[in-house]
Design brief:
It contains 4 helices and no strands. The chain has helices at about 5-30, 40-45, 50-75, 80-105. Helix 1 packs across helix 3 and helix 3 packs antiparallel against helix 4 (about 80-105).
């Protein structure tokens, strides 16, 4: 695939920007709303835009992790069957984490 390396590079960079933005926002929000209790946490994730941004963060984290793990598997795991099993396992695990995060975010009242 000609665009494979370029698209992986782009996914890695764009996801890193999303992760950095969320990582800068979150500690500031926590510092401004200290001390934290359940009501404060619920208030943070109650608005729809925050749920969407948080889910985008989780998706970006999963994509970022996938590109890194895929590169590691391709570079260091030589047996094709094992590499394929690791790819499938990693994809299933990351997809499960994203779906679970979405279920948690949308189960909030």
């Amino acid at each position: 695939m000609v665009g494979g390396a370029l698209s992986a590079w782009l996914v890695q960079r764009v996801s890193a920007l999303l992760l950095a933005a969320y990582a800068l926002f979150f500690p500031v929000w926590v510092a401004l709303h200290w001390p934290l209790d359940f009501a404060v946490w619920r208030g943070l994730f109650a608005p729809l835009p925050m749920r969407i941004v948080t889910l985008l963060f989780v998706v970006a984290l999963a994509l970022h992790a996938w590109v890194g793990m895929r590169d590691i598997f391709m570079d260091y795991v030589q047996p094709l069957g094992l590499r394929l099993a690791l790819h499938v396992g990693a994809l299933l695990w990351l997809a499960t984490c994203v779906v679970w995060a979405g279920a948690v975010l949308w189960s909030l009242p």
